[in-house]
Protein 1
Amino acid sequence: MGAITLKVNGKQVTVDAAPRTLLVELLREPLQLTGTHVGCDTSQCGSCTVLVDGRSIKACTMLAVEAAGTEVTTIEGLAQGGRLHPMQEAFQSCHGLQCGFCTPGMILSAVDCLKQNPTADERDVREWLEGNICRCTGYHNIVKAVLSCRDRMAQSKEG
Amino acid sequence: MSTTTTPTPKGPLGQPLVRREDRRFITGQGRYTDDIVLPGMTHAAIVRSPHAHARILSIDTTAARQAPGVIAIFTGQDVAADKVGGLPCGWLVKNKDGSNMVEPPHPILVADRARHVGDQVALVVAETRAQARAALSLIAVEYEPLPAVASLAAARAAGAAQVWDQAPGNVCYDWHLGDPTATEQALKAAHQIVEIDVYHNRLIPNAIEPRSAIGQYESGTDSYTLYTSSQNPHLIRLLLGAFVLGLPEHRLRVVAPDVGGGFGSKIFHYAEEALVVWAARKVGRPIKWTAERSESFMSDAHGRDVHMRARLGVDKDGRFLGLHVQSQANLGAYLSTFASSVPTYLSATLMAGCYTTPAIYVEVKSIFTHTVPVDAYRGAGRPEAAYLLERLVDKAANALGMDRLEIRRKNFITQFPYKTPVALEYDSGDYHATLDMALAAVDYAGFPARREASQARGKLRGIGFSTYVEACGIAPSAVAGALGARAGLYESATVRMHPTGSVTVFTGTHSHGQGHETTFAQLVAEQLGVPVDSVEVVHGDTARIPFGMGTYGSRSLAVGGSAIVKATDKIIAKGKKIAAHLLEAAEADIEFKNGAFTVVGTNRQKTIGEVAFTAYVPHNYPIDKVEPGLEESAFYDPKNFTFPAGCHAIEVEIDPETGVVTLENVVAADDVGTIINPLIVDGQMHGGLAQGIGQALFEEAQYDESGQLLTGSYLNYGMPRAADFPFFKVGNHVTACTHNPLGAKGVGEVGAIGVPPAVINAVLDALAPLGVRDISMPATPEKIWRAIQDAKAKAQH
């Protein structure tokens, strides 16, 4: 075991973890941030996606020790001061989720998508989301949600 | 395409309200089974057979017992010694001769023989998940591998290995439906016979939340709790309590909290649910088991895997005269909970489709193989019927040189009710209307120009249709019981008005993505005239809700919603008595509208909130006539199935150099009956379409000859991704169901049922100029490319 210090959702934490502990295990178990989900064991489904230093990453592909010294944002930390992130709002208003299991990873991946490419079009969004599997929505309303968030963010910049 | 052909509603019914459940899911506050941590909780992992068929010679657990954190190890011997029952099958199908199907045992841990890769051999309980998993490799199981049969063909071959000694030829049952004599006569009299041979590919449901279960035993109260990712907690309680562990139901609580998708695969009672409850008592601590995805692939019930041959007799004008279907269904190694009903009562009964075919005869042989059990998966039997018929109808049009839409229209059922020759009575529908709607949405008139444009770019373009009907809300209980169902098929609801006028609804259905918390709140708000926000919906906990059958077969609104309507009707009836007293009027003179009880013809009224308050504070109250309180329960047993129907139209472009299919147009025009929330209905359509397209183009569970699962992860199973789809065009034409109070039919499965044949018909339409006449699902680029090469080679000879 060894102590790992990192910032999670704006809060500095120090956790004892075995070297083989994955970041997703660290988040779900000692930190009890169960909004980050595990949907597969081959790094394909993207349910465990979180932001590490602002970039989306599958938390099942990263050892907890690799995350030492970084700043991790999970779905629990995306809303700021009780205000939902525009991507969270867009997922709700566009009915971009059904069972909700892929949703946290999907939202965080989408946040990074627009950060990298604020003018992403439908094709860009669909290709970006290749690493996140959803079985409920046919992706239709997820893509709508990301595009609607893009438009809203563009408007608020202009305004 | 316009979303619906009904007028815009005024009340909450029919409004596209955003879902209230979303708030918790988008903020990470959802609570799935694996998120739950109980004090003192331990973790389980399961040793699974690496062989499709093997004798278990010995199990040495010595080393594993010494491993760090290991608390206990259980094998099939322990389960047998405790006389734990096997997992039961919920539907008894009879053979043609009236004898019963073969029902082999289905132990929760196998003792002497493993019958599929993934069969559960031993259970390890340890302090942590990692320790439990690490101990798996220290358990030495000595297997003697035996010959295996992994496919329908292998299981039926002469001298094939036997899955069960009591099932010669690996046949579970040999069943039939319809009139063989009338059908044979109709085929003899036909102008032409059109034949088809189709295979419905084997699919893995793949809900994104892997299955999970926590068992807890409390010695102080001698009671058990099971948290499980289930679509129907009461059914699990009944099966687990009465059949497997012999526990009294009043001491067994089953909670299905947030569940991350089901699609049928979480209907069934699984061994792991029984194991964690049984072992929790042994170790005296709660036990959690959560599947790794690779375990899901080899232990969740699979879907489809049915081979069908059919002959359709047509007259020279294209009228269907008779249909004979012979089907073989792969059930896997054991009978999963509803496996036996899927190829029979859920499939053969739909062989009339939308058409007036007067004589139909269906024969179904279900077969055991050394593979994972196969059971209901989104659509369950009905996609097989729709696929067979809609491929066959296109083939018939080709054979007669007729237009494929004309042949459909000519045979459409237009008079309702309509009694089919395969046991169902359709109550309502308008098949021409949904076909017209789809043609408009897909711009059929513009298709020839689009095809030419594709051609000019060296691409092949095709369009395909399917006009399907399906059956939802399986019922009534008495009829299903007479046909072999071992469960009731009603639904329950309790509506509790609180003293301050807010409402809690307890439903026996279960929501795992369908949005019942929103839809049912809209329904109750409409019924009782209260704000949607003052209605809470509770589901998924046998300690809170009335005995209910859960959610499957697109039944929740048609059956569960009807139970809610019955319960609110009782609330209103009781409220009238109370209001009559308060208003000093005769009960017959009280009418209820918009949340208020009014003396007819006056403005004297009491709101439902005032009536509720009086019911709980009964100071001025007709106590000799009415009990205090305002809470009513209802059970609703439907009179019939409901029959959603519609037309799906698919337009594809194929690159002949690579065989890659691009979906250019995905259109679904459906009649799902009354719609409570169009936003949610559209979402259900999208999801169903994606899974149906997945079956048609990408997905197939494959075993090698020895019974090894070749598609055991997302690396090699074709899960559809975002870039595989365009936006879908979905719309509704509503004809109301005539026999339930809502007029609802069901929407959960229609996408997965209707679309696969439309996709394949479109692919074949695109390939027709090259002479390709058939292709099997999934129509992968490789398969299409090979079909093109074969056709070219043929053309050169």
Protein 2
Amino acid sequence: MLDRISGLRTVETGSTEAEPTLSVRRLSKSFTNGPCVLSGVDIAIRPGESVALIGANGTGKSTFVRCLLRLIEPNDGDIRMFGLDVRALTSRSLRHLRSRVGFVFQRHNLVLRLSALSNVIHGAQARMSSPGSWYQALAPSRVRDEAMTCLERVSLDGKACARADSLSGGQSQRVAIARMLMQRPEFVIADEPDASLDPRAGEEIMRLLHETARERGLGLLFISHDLEHAIRFSDRIVGLAAGQVALDVRSNNANPTELRKFFAEERP
Amino acid sequence: MLVTSPGHSTKAHQRAIFDRQCAELRQRRRLHTAFGLLLFVALCIGSAVIGKFSPIALIEGAPKLGEYVQRTLPALHWSSLGADLAYWFYGLRKWLDLLLETVLMAYLATLLGSLGALLVCFYGSRNLALNGWSYHLARRASEFFRTIPDLVFALIFVFAFGLGPLAGILAIALHSLGANGKLFAEANENIDMKPVEGLRALGSGWVQTMRFGVMPQVMPNYASYVLWRFEINVRTAAVMGFVGAGGIGMELITAVRSLYYEDISAILILIVVTVGLIDIGCERLRHALIGRETLE
């Protein structure tokens, strides 16, 4: 597939005055007894930039974003985030780095037996590691107030005490975004946040994510299978094929017909 | 003449492969079933022979069983029922005190054992362990504590700490640690790992991830296992006195050895009633806990 779409590659580096928030070079990952998922991915994201990552199923998009925070350990390559060498970080420094990056998952990854508010309070965990915070009903009132503000931002303050497993897919994803806001992140990664939602809810979630990133001046890297979302909510589109960057183009220059080729076939 | 198209021939070939695989699978299953049956029968016969499990001995001994039970029961007369019962349960006050001691022994042992199990179980879960060493260490330790019979532990603790409930509490607590450590770890292995990944991505440490990502998912299971273990421990604590490790068992074994038949039945009735009441209470509590929403 890479051969077929290599002609599309239109790398536009853009302005490089500011140091990139995220810079990845030659990132590779292969699983034991499995194929090579990523083979030499290069990408750089400047502060405040919104980048959409597209590609067919199995091209390594989710693996790539997980490698950025070492939720999956990469085999080779360099990852620099906020000027830090991510692969060289100790576990303590890595936890600190993770707390600076908001990660929104495709399936929200909430603790289902807990309330929406408790899940949002989890976002502040890196800031409140004292034993007093172990029982979240006893979390300091300023933390609970902040969590409520985050829920208000995603219009879910009315569901603060509802259990996460009683929420719809769209509501759960909004709780996940509120949890991300609670982190006070400096950069946001979203792995197909609109994937398990109906078109209207997906649109709402993408708009919310885009707006919150914009109003706080946060960089945003999101994976999407919806080309319209990828074009509308990003400054740049990066296409992955066969574990490599096969396209890097400004969203306003993107040709939907050509982009569609990235979803033409799945990796076996 | 019949002309076969290439497509038809491929289909026929696929069908032949499928049929052959089905036949092989059937043959393998027949072999497995036959082997399983043989093993089952061999184990039954072997166990009966080694355990001297003889139906003749059962039939011959059964009347003596009735005779023993009959001896333990006092003669009760309707006209003097109150006095007869008072005579039968003459040691009620002392026995109730010992029963209370037995229940409290079981309570404290369950608490200590379950707390220990809680500390061990995360290291002993394949999906949560820090590394292979911690996993094997936690699993083998749990195995050790639940494999040694609690009466053996009790004997060791009686030797170390002297006669009394302390030895019994420690013995039951260690056994509970082993048993609950395994059950808790297995509950942990069945959790949904997505919340765990979510918490790791937030920058949570290992302890926070266990506390907020794992425990909310498994608390109903933990509660159920702890209550079940308490029921078992009350029964176990009732025989700890056999080796001098506290509880009502000491009184029971003294009655058995001294052939105080009526005391045996009175104590046994009290134990059965107490254990039954605790079983009912625990069952209700367990169902109430499982059904409750966790809104921490």
